[in-house]
Amino acid sequence: MQLPNLLTTKKGRLTAFFLLYVTEGIPLGFAATAVATQLRRLDVGPAEIGAFVGSFYLPWAFKWAFGPIIDVFTFGRLGKRRGWILITQIMMALTLLSTVMLDLPQQLGLFTAILLIHNTFGAMQDVAIDALACSTLHDDERGTANGMMFAGAYIGMAIGGSGVLFLSGVTGFQPTFYFVTACILSVTALVVLPMKEAAEPVRAVVGGSRLAQAGREMRTFAVDAFRSFLGSRGAFSGLLFAILPPGAMCLGLALQSNLAVELGLDDDQVGWLSLWSSVLSAAFCVIGGFLSDRFGRRRTLFIYIALMSLPVLYLMLALEQYGWIMPASTSAANRPAVPIGLVTALWIATLSYAALQGLMYGTRSASLMDVTNPKVAATQFTAYMALANLAISYSSTWQGIAIEAWGYPRTMLIDTVLGMACLIVIPFLKRLDIQGGGFIDDRGPQRARLLALMLGIFCICWWPYTHWQTEFGSAQRLIGTIFTVIFVASALFLLAGRAVQGPNGGVTARIGMWFAPLLLLMYSRYFLDAIGKWFAPAITPDAFKTIAESGMLLVTVGAGVLLVMQATQAWREMSGQSGESPATSSI
Question: Is the dihedral of CA 201, 206, 212, 213 positive or negative?
Fold first, then answer.
């Protein structure tokens, strides 16, 4: 029996994208709920679990880098987007199967590395799915489809989290890896294989090889995307909004799983808690989008994010009341008795939070779509989502550190305060008016100079940080992640800025282009000890590390100075007069 191509009908398209997003949610739920629960049961500390969950989300923070590759390179008869979805899902299955024989927690480092690769393919799949949705969904379907897609992700998280925990009670934990793999491959077989994309005209190769044409297309993409991000108040505000935590986040991350285990919930109970949370989030995601269409996007989003703090504060007060402040080892002989009232408070807070988070997620994504330029919609929206995933990653990391240092209640209070910061940005997420002025206004040059100045100062701050980093203790890992983002953002700014300014950028832009790859290489600072061994005995590992760190210091300070110098340039190419109609803006 030949399976239908679901892309040919409206119901089929909604079903297809719902199921495709299920495959995105499965590995996230598997890591954040099932694996995190298992690791805590094995007495792995909250900081290690937080770092594990944070690293798992990290590829999603940089998925924007896959956009140009997926847009330009295709797989012939497999389809422009379908080929990428098919290949990434197969690789997700293979990488997951390779972890079956690993011994946890002894091989947690290798396990984390393999799942990082696994989730890199998951992030690539997400970009391809979003690109397919942009080119396939009709205008009157996108609102419903957006809600369905996020609902599918939540259902996938329930399968990968609750489903695995339920199954592990029967089969043990390791065999559940086969279950997760089978779920992903079933969508591959039933949805992706029968899928056929609409034919697109073949682009002719002009003036050279396909690779050369890809380079030209990526340069054009860089210019369009750079101008779109900084070209309007709403788009520029979207960058800040996306990278900030959207409200209190701790009850959606490893903190909740840690507490569930510490309070004595077995795998079935944790599974039911995760299942009901996912179902509520999926349902309220659709409801939140509908209400935002009816009563206004920014108004409802403001209310949703403010309300998300209430369950967190409620549980924080309950923890204070019962004296459950610091993490309690699951294997300690003198563990305190768990109050029934505290377990009840955990259920109430978690389920209430899940509903409110669902309201927020659908509306937040719609708000970011509102400020996205249709000309570079897939790339710009993917970048916003990547920054949002970075917020999840760094939030999980700092919370794991804070729990061990300050305890649960204080961590939850800080999380609530940080989550409120994004409320300041929401009023500026104004829908772009295509009829009234376009997507590029006359304040693009000011925004480019401001961003260059900020990135330059942050790069220079690496110098004093290296001298006093030991004073930050366990927070070094979190600060290191923030600097990594700064270095990557600075590299992209230098590359795209050179493409935008062209000859007008002068020597500063030309030199900055060469500093960009050096900034990307700053990530190798985490592996200097291992790299140094490659050059022994010609040079000792310690001497190599000293030389490399000195070179990295020169790179960051040099890039910082170049960025500060770019903040003094005119950036006339960013003006609304340069290619698009100007629009008035107050920022």
Answer: negative
CA atoms of 512 and 499, how far apart (whole Å): 11
The token duo for 527 is: 């592996």
Taking CA atoms, 106 is separated from 113, 176, 351, in Å, by 13, 19, 34
DSSP collapsed to 3 states, 342-406? HHHHHHHHHHHHHHHHHHHHHHHHHHHHHCCCHHHHHHHHHHHHHHHHHHHHHHHHHHHHHHHHH
**How far is Cα 422 from Cα 24, in angstroms, rounded to an integer?**
26
What is the pLDDT, as a whole number, of residue 369?
Answer: 75
Token pair belonging to 381: 């929206």
Contacts of residues 107-115 at CB distance under 8 Å and 24 or more positions apart, as own/partner, are 108/39, 108/44, 108/48, 108/52, 112/52, 112/55, 112/56, 115/27, 115/31, 115/35, 115/56
Q: Which CATH superfamily is domain 6-195+218-428 in?
A: MFS general substrate transporter like domains (1.20.1250.20)
How does pLDDT run across 284-339, given as a tens digit for each residue?
Answer: 887 887 788 778 888 999 999 999 999 999 999 999 999 888 887 766 667 778 88
Q: Which of 361, 363, 360, 383 is nearest to 372 (CA)?
A: 383
Q: CB–CB of 469/527 below 8 Å?
A: no
Q: Do 111 and 96 form a contact (C-beta atoms < 8 A)?
A: no
Cα separations in angstroms, 14 against 151, 154, 293, 379: 11, 16, 19, 22
Tell me the residue type at 132. L
Angle at alpha carbon of residue 113, lines to 109 and 116, rounded to 5°: 135
Distance separating alpha carbons of residues 3 and 264, to the nearest angstrom: 46
Cis peptide before 537 (omega within 30 of 0): yes
Residue 106, by phi and psi: left (phi above 0), alpha (psi -120 to 50) or beta?
alpha
Residue 503: burial class (beta carbons within 10 Å; 0-12, 13-18, 19+): exposed
In tens, the pLDDT along 345-397 reads 999 999 999 999 988 987 887 788 778 776 666 667 777 877 887 788 788 87
Under 8 Å between Cβ of 340 and 333: no
Report d(CA 19, CA 81) in Å as an integer: 16
Q: For 210-226, how does the pLDDT look when each residue is reduced to its tens digit (9 = 90+)? A: 566 656 666 676 677 77
Q: Which of 115-129, 187-201, 378-392 has the lowest mean pLDDT?
A: 378-392
Amino acid 293: pLDDT? 76
Q: Hey, what are 223's tokens?
A: 């210019």
DSSP string, 12-71: HHHHHHHHHHHHHHHHHHIIIIIIHHHHHHTT--HHHHHHHHHHHHHHHHTGGGHHHHHH
Residue 400 has pLDDT above 70, yes or no: yes
Q: What is the tens place of the pLDDT at every residue in 454-491?
A: 999 999 999 999 989 888 876 777 788 788 888 988 99
